[in-house]
Specification:
The complex is a heterodimer.
Chain A lengths: L6 H18 L18 E2 L9 E2 L9 E6 L4 H15 L4 E6 L3 H11 L6 E4 L3 H5 L7 E5 L5 E6 L4 H21 L1
Parallel strand pairs in A: 3-4, 4-5
Antiparallel strand pairs in A: 1-2, 3-6, 6-7
Chain B lengths: L1 H29 L2 H30 L6 H6 L6 H6 L5 H22 L5 H25 L23 H30 L4 H33 L9 H26 L3 H23 L6 H6 L1 H25 L14 H33 L6 H22 L10 H7 L1 H18 L4 H24 L7 H9 L3 H26 L1 E7 L4 E4 L2 E12 L3 E12 L2 E9 L2 E6 L2 E6 L1 E5 L2 E10 L5 E9 L3 H17 L3 H5 L5
Antiparallel strand pairs in B: 1-10, 2-3, 3-4, 4-5, 4-6, 6-7, 8-9, 9-10
Helix pairs in contact in B: 1-2, 1-6, 2-5, 2-6, 5-6, 5-7, 6-7, 6-12, 7-8, 7-10, 8-9, 8-20, 9-10, 9-13, 10-12, 13-14, 14-17, 16-17, 17-19, 19-20
The chains are: A alpha/beta, B alpha+beta.
Chain lengths: 180, 653
Amino acid sequence: MRYRFFIPLAIFAIAAIAFYMGLSLNPNQIPSAKVGKPVPEFNTPALYGGEADFSSSNLRGSGYQLVNIFASWCVPCREEHPILMALKQRGVVINGFNYKDTPEKGRQFLESLGNPYDLIGQDQNGRVAIDWGTSGVPETFVVNNKGEIIFQHIGPLTRAVVAAEILPRIEGGIESDADE
Amino acid sequence: MIVELGHLSLILALMVSVATVLLSFEGARRGHVASLAWSPRLSIIQFVLVSASFAALTYAYVTSDFSVLNVALHSHTEKPLIYKISGVWGNHEGSLLFWALVLTLYAAAVSVFGGKLTPSFKARALGFQSLVTSGFLLFMITTSNPFLRIDPPALQGNGLNPLLQDPALAFHPPLLYLGYVGLAVVFSFSLAALVEGRVDKRWASNVRPWALLAWGLLTGGIALGSWWAYYELGWGGWWFWDPVENASFMPWLAGTALIHSVTVVEKREALKSWTVLLAILAFSLSLIGTFIVRSGVLTSVHAFAVDPERGVFILGFLAVVIGGSLTLFAMRANLLKPKGQFEIISREGSLVFNNLFLVTVLFTVFLGTLYPLFVDAILGEKLSVGAPYFEATFIPLFIPILFAMVLGPIMAWKKASLRATLYRLKYVAIASVVFVALVAWMTSTYEVLALLGLALGLWVLFGVLWSVADGMSLGRVSLASSYNRLRGFTLGRWGMFVAHLGIAITVLGIAVSATWSDETLANLRVGEGADVGAYHFRLDGLQPVAGPNYSAVRAFFSVSKIGDTSQEITVLMPEERTFWSPPTQTTEVAIYSMLKGDLYAVIGNETQGGRWSARLYFKPLITWIWFGGILMMLGALLSMFDRSARRSDGEDK
């Protein structure tokens, strides 16, 4: 009977061990499961009625581009938004999923902050994001001209990530294809 | 010189606090009267020493002494005086010093006001409190010392972030910390009770005021923080479920459960070990909140990797405090035998129900908050599980809590009848349903969740009013004797009514502002206007403004009722500010608050052809959210001043 008083201690011990192990893991040891694979099959309705739906066929053989997952309720998305706008200015093609969000709120979000996206799919229940291996928002993927995911970034984009990881892959990819 | 004295004082405080620990426990174990008498005195000395230290750091901030690293990093000569002072606790080291100050302040208060405690209990409680203080002071002196000098001194400080110069933000942390740390007293009292193996009525009535004080201050701190987010961030939201907010919300949930279960111990001597466990949980969560989330030390692994010393110390400290207290609980809790028996349907039963749901809410918030932190720890990236997760889990769990909130207080102790209780509330139920039906019909709103929220808010509101009337026997006896009964209500009872009324007001504010807000996105030229619900906003003009380190465009919106443009309600002046170093754009929201709602305007960029984008809102009842928070705080304070002598033979029995 008195063993039940040990339950809180046991739970704490397990949580503490998990936390400690989590901290001692090397971030680089966890590869992204989706990188190097073709984009998953999907077809999402357009955020704006009247525009084209966003589906996996849009990403095959249509050049290097970004796929960004965002939501109006997501604070880090607001943080990275100016960077997406700057990428669009530079001519990078960006497509987006409005994740677990109502279309109205998604549209409001883009109307107040600007719309950097070419195609926007409405992923209301987050089903498509699961196929992309997403665990939260924001996330950004680089897709090559064959329709394969070549890079995944978890969390908000920063200028450093864009300069070091995103632009070389997109612009470098376009150049190397031109050379062939 | 003064800075060195502050540093010295901090080291002395550590020595005295270690001495308090040893003296208190050893004195209590042996029953040595002289040592027991010294335990409160030493606690007061700790407070004096830490105060001196805090004053020295404040002095360094006020005089902008940039030879002190901490001041050079976080202050600036051009800051207004009030923000120089708030800068003291606005950084990691200073906030730790503030924590230590409040910890010792509470210990000193227990020493002075804890007259009814037995000397050995008091010594043990102060011993545990001093143990926590020692940990904090040791942490500061070894890894986070605010008194370190730099040579040569910096010419100018580094801390002029105008976004953080805001009165609500300056006073939000102290209030929050007063609440967090107040839970330390409850924690120390609980551990002392475990050591003595005795939790009874007396213990509960000694703990109760501290728990209520801490809870009330925590409520105030959270409300202030949410209000800041509302008017400063300019997204129209007021709660974002971000880790910093959740860090304060979790101890609040545990504290809410605690102030209810401690009543059961006081009145009925039941739920003893559970209450002690809640006290440990509440304080553990405030430690986790401070360290892991708030201080920024463990918000990302980067900080952990850059500064492994701090990280290891923090984890070690948490392990000792939380693990140690849970070990003590595991070994001693079986001594706390409940005396009072009760049926499931009873006042006690309803409080158990409240506790179970609150702890479940707490658990879901904990998972949602820590999950991104784990991802951050493992992958080094920030992401958000965000509002959908919290809303999906939080709302369904809060519905039964709100429903039961009205039933519990009117049930009898030991055994009650659910049917009879519900029957007594028939008019409350009818009034709420009729009111909601009217609102739905008049506004043509048929969203289930919105109407349910409104109904629950009204249910609690009417329920509280009915309970007051019922307690007065209004209508059943003469008005004079009703009034006499009203005067006979204990402060504890008033406190409960006021705090529950606060919940009702907050719930109504949330439900109504979420459902019936009007929002218009407009592209306006000067002279043009836009309709927002029943209001008309006209853009009267734009004006460039030069700030100290930014330039801004200020817009003037005159607001009037539609159809009555001659009567101007107010002129809203939102700004779009551009700071040049670092180049950032911020928006200054303009808000005009009325009892029935807020007019809210945000100005965006110039789009084309002399048009400016603007977001204009009418948010009905939104200030009720924070007004309810104030009522909850007030209720806790009222209840706190209820002297237990009167309570124990009050009418509640």
